Predict the structure.
Amino acid sequence: MYCPNCGAESTQGLKFCKRCGAGIASSADIAAPQKFPVALTAGFVGIIGLIALVGLIGPLALATDLVKQGITLDNLRPILFLSPVVTFGIVGTLIWLLLRLIKIYQHAGGQSQIKEVQAEGSKAYTPAQITAPPESLGSVTEHTTRNFEPSRYRDAEVQIEDR
């Protein structure tokens, strides 16, 4: 059996590749991708729409009120320029998050299979144990020290300092 992700050979019965960690499943284990719940998608899109609406109309309403109070439009340009940029950034991030969530849901095969994998993963996982070294290790400082002979220059320095 070979890993569909990296092509490494693996033994029969493994759920994950030893080399890359990708899930290995036989054709009988692979379920058809399920659709993301429509109600959840609609709710997420509604929240994104509400954020876009508030982010684009809110600063315009604020600018209108501030102009009525006597603030010039030149002072409001940074607000009017930056608010749509920030709003589109937030909306784009939320759309990216929704698409990733849909992809993960479809790849996992639905909510029931996600719960099964979580339950199996917590029971089946046993952390790798570190084995004891085969023999005792030598000292780190072994063969790293050496004796220095007295320096004739140091003796000369001492004589100079005495003078």
Notes: The two ends are 86 Å apart (CA to CA). The mean pLDDT is 75. The longest helix spans residues 73-108. DSSP finds four helices and no strands in the chain.
